[in-house]
Amino acid sequence: MTINLTLLVVMGAMLAVGIYLLLERSLTRVLLGIILISNGVNLLILQTSGRAGEPPIVRDGMEAGDYLDPLPQALLLTAIVIAFAMVALLLALIYRSWVLGRQDEVTDDEEDRRVAATIGAHDPEEDADVGTETSEFIDAVDPATGTVRSVSPAEPRDDAATALTEGSRGAGES
Amino acid sequence: MQFEVVDFVPLAVLIPFFGAAFAFAFYRNQATQKAITIGALILTVLLELVLLAEVWHGGAHAVQLAGWPAPFGISMVIDRFAALMLVVSSFITLAVLLYAVGQGAAEEKNDAGPVSIFYPTYLILVAGVSNAFLAGDLFNLYVGFEIFLTASYVLLTLGGGEARIRAGVTYVVVSILSSMLFLITIGLMYAAAGTVNLADLALKLSELDRGTQLMLHVMLLVAFGIKAAVFPLAFWLPDSYPTAPAPVTAVFAGLLTKVGIYAMIRTETLLFPGERINTVLMIVAGLTMLVGILGALAQADIKRMLSFTLISHIGYLVFGLALSSVIGMAATIYYVAHHITIQTTLFLVTGLIERRAGTANVDRLGGLARISPVLALLFFIPAMNLAGIPPFSGFVGKLGIMQGGIAENTWITWTLVAASVLTSLLTLLAVSRIWARGFWRRAEDVEDPERIMLQKSLVHARAANKRLLPASMVAPTAMLVTMSLAFTVFAGPLMNFSRAAAQDMYERTPYLEAVLGQERVDGVREELVDFTTGYVVDLEPNDGGAAEFAPVRTSLQPEVEIDERGSATVEVEEQAEPEGGDE
């Protein structure tokens, strides 16, 4: 079987990037990862038909090997439709999760919290009292004017987030 | 053109689909929706009963959709195993549907969207499950999985509350990942063998390089292992199932993981027979049992506890599968049918407990046996059945699997037999803890009781029962409990049937003949028979091989006759309770 090297490399890259994104905690990135993986898999199925050939419509005097194998494309179409539905559904779930809890992250499950409570674990990074606004984008929008606040390059993003959190905590106390 | 009854096999998928479409059309009218849904499911059950009767003695049948012959078109195959799974699954879904109707359409107040979606989605779930059971090629199997998984995403996040969304996201991402793995495997199989038809693959895969075979085999097992919740891949399950409404959790717990197991059994027997990775499977099975049941012991919430016992009992099924023997597989088939019923029943009863007591946390339950003896009975029977106490079907199934292990007689199977016994005892411990705390202790002893549990007198409490436990919910639960008892009463014929199904699957020729036609199979029949007799123990019990491999002679031994076509039929002998001879 002949395989297109470009497609193979692209597929590998898509799967690798997709898996990397899937391991993130942010749901939007997980979704992006799923999109990349599903398209990588689609490319894989496409390649199983071998090298491109003549359209698979029977004609007299053609060698069987000259036709393109049409089955993978049929499978591929079904897979695309299914992946599309999945992505739409997941997007709705993520949006709902954002509306309800202002969470764009995979939250700890009950078991995690119970184990943490039992052994009295406290991870300063995970358990610190932070604001619920975890998005990278919403902080930069000024709610009064609706304009995007520019973040100066001298001020690293993390510090900006911390400052904002402290600000909100101060507001809560007063 | 002559039609046979088995030609109507695709209707098992189509009826629920059409039902779903009509139910969607009547979205404004809940009563019509209910009638359509219940009617469609009853029709499906009747059809599948006819199909089961048709294949009871007859082996496998294939339907080539649109008339395209097998390796090119889409085939739907029904054999004994598939028919049994179809009937059991439809009965379960019907009972759960009636329960959900009783409960008011799975928490109607939460499902207050513009379109009422519970019933149509439920029917789509049924259609997907049926499609997966009947699929004759890998890709159709994938489509079946996707249909019921998509329906399950919707059902799991019904109402869209915060807890359900949180659980739903994990479930969806894990399921999509496993589907992607499955799809990759399908692509690789097509690249390697040039077909996705299961019967065709069965013949072509054995010609491949052994390394390639092993890779495809393991990838497929990992993909199905995630769906079936086998040990290292099971941690999504207890996190996502318990948050859904009781009927939804019940049907998920009963059915969805078993479809994964079904796919594993099907591909393991048809595509990759032999014992290459049996030891690994057994280690995985043992770990699934033990880790699952230890997790169950740590839980206070009944739903979470049951989710962990579900994982642990998947271990039994994997063990039975890994034995690669007719005894083990027969018991596994029987145990799958039993376990679907039991697990669903227990989740339904838990729903009732939660309704009556306001909580499913064992620490806050008490005195239920006094308040509602019926509820106590409905819990007690399936709970003991789950633990495998002798007269019940759980015992028969577990005994059969352990006999398979003993017959194999290697160190690993003995270890697994020991693990099975231990798991069984720990299951008993887990359910008897619920029994002792929730039902047996006095309500006054509970530290932080729900107010609803503290009625002034027994008369008041019994009056509240009427309101909280309507007959429309108790009756379907009782129906399932009766069905689980039927597995015990008819254990003899059912075990013989499972044995015939197992024999069919290991012989492989009935399935292949049904799909590919006799001429094609005749060319390779000798190879197939050689392979099967070389690998599978006691395929022909008359040859003395059975005695060699099965030192424990029991009444569960099959009485098999080989007819002139080479397929086996089983004599349903007149016998008392099958466990009678095992003592």
Short note summarizing the structure:
The complex is a heterodimer of chains A (174) and B (583). Chain A is mainly α. Chain A has helices spanning 5-22, 27-47, 71-101, 110-119, 124-127, 157-173.
Provide the fold topology:
The complex is a heterodimer of chains A (174) and B (583).
Chain A: H1 5-22, H2 27-47, H3 71-101, H4 110-119, H5 124-127, H6 157-173
Helix pairs in contact in A: 1-2, 2-3
Chain B: H1 11-25, H2 30-55, E1 61-64, E2 75-78, H3 80-102, H4 104-107, H5 118-134, H6 138-156, H7 162-193, H8 198-204, H9 210-228, H10 237-240, H11 246-270, H12 278-297, H13 302-322, H14 326-357, H15 368-371, H16 373-387, H17 393-408, H18 411-440, H19 458-468, H20 471-489, H21 491-507, H22 509-516, H23 518-522, H24 525-535, H25 545-549, E3 560-562, E4 568-570
Antiparallel strand pairs in B: 1-2, 3-4
Helix pairs in contact in B: 1-2, 1-5, 2-3, 3-5, 3-11, 3-14, 3-20, 5-6, 6-7, 6-11, 7-9, 9-11, 11-13, 11-14, 12-13, 12-18, 13-14, 13-17, 13-18, 14-16, 14-17, 14-20, 14-21, 16-18, 16-20, 17-18
Transmembrane segments (chain B): 6-26, 38-57, 77-100, 112-133, 139-159, 171-194, 214-237, 244-265, 277-298, 305-327, 333-353, 374-392, 412-432, 468-490
Subcellular location (chain B): Cell membrane; Membrane
Biased composition (Acidic residues) (chain B): 571-583
Entry keywords:
heterodimer, A: 174 residues, mainly alpha, Helix Hairpins, disordered C terminus, B: 583 residues, two-stranded antiparallel sheet, two-stranded antiparallel ribbon, 25 helices, globular, CPA3_Na-H_Antiporter_D (chain B), transmembrane (chain B)
Structure overview:
The complex is a heterodimer of chains A (174) and B (583). Chain A folds into two domains: 5-58 and 65-101, Orthogonal Bundle (Helix Hairpins); 126-173, no CATH class. Chain A contains six helices and no strands. The N and C termini of chain A lie far apart (72 Å). Chain A has 174 residues and is an all-alpha fold. Chain B has 583 residues and is an all-alpha fold. Chain B has a domain at 274-336 and 351-507. Chain B is 69% helix and 2% strand. The chains are: A mainly alpha (174), B mainly alpha (583).
